[in-house]
Amino acid sequence: MKFSGAVVASLLVIAGMTVPSGADACLRMKRRRVQKVDHKLQDVNRAEHLLAKGQGPRAAKVARKRFKKFTAATGEPDSGKALFNRAQRTIALATLRSDGAIDLGKGMRGKTPEQRMGNLAWATSILEIQAAAEPDNMLLRTYLAEALMHQPGGDAQAVELLSQLANDDLMPTARGFALLAQGQQRLGDVSGMDLSLQRCRELGEGDDICTVA
Q: Other C-beta atoms within 10 Å of 186: how many?
């Protein structure tokens, strides 16, 4: 089939109008990528990284920036539950690892003994709720045990929880064995402590974490 020159010219004009140039397509792709950036997710990832490096107060500050209602057990209506839980858990763990001496905002400044105890009680309650919601999550069990060890008379319960994980070969991290060793030391179980420290080192995280004070 033959087309006249005018028809061909018209088709070329239409094609030029409907097919984006390479530069236009690249610009549109960049705009889409910018629009998809999840700043909440970025901050939660950063907070978790800071916590892992032992920078608890900074981790809590970063996580709190995106989740103003972090103390609520039910989460925030406009936040994904899983992401909110990660942020809240990071703040709770940072609180535990600061012995409650961390500024979590109004009424939770962590400056007085009462405020520190209140912060620790809040962190423990949050980890209890999260562990109960995911009973098959072994990592959450270790976090709960860590919280219990910050409560009066909680060492025995923490050791029982961690011992069950150890005996069933379900301990998820070396820190879990280090916590178990710490609890066993407090309860006077020296042989159990030595075994837990040995198993901690076998997971390959080194002696820096596999020690007790």
A: 15
Judgement on whether residues 105 and 159 belong to the same structural domain of the protein: no
Half-sphere exposure of residue 83: CA atoms within 13 angstroms, side-chain side: 18
- Is residue 83 within 8 A of residue 47, CB to CB? The reply is no
Report which residue type is found at 113. P
Give the tens place of pLDDT for each residue, 165-206. 999 999 999 999 999 999 999 999 999 999 999 999 998 766
For the chain, the 3-state helix, strand and coil shares in percent, each to the nearest 5, are 65, 0, 35
Q: Tell whether 142 and 128 lie within a shared domain.
A: no
Asked which of 118, 133, 148 is the last residue of a domain, the reply is: 133
Q: What residues contact 39, with CB distance under 8 A and at least 6 apart?
A: 66
User: Within this chain, do residues 144 and 119 fall inside the same structural domain, yes or no?
Assistant: no
In order of 17, 141, 205, the CA distances from 131 in angstroms are 58, 6, 25
- What's the predicted TM-score (pTM) here? 0.79
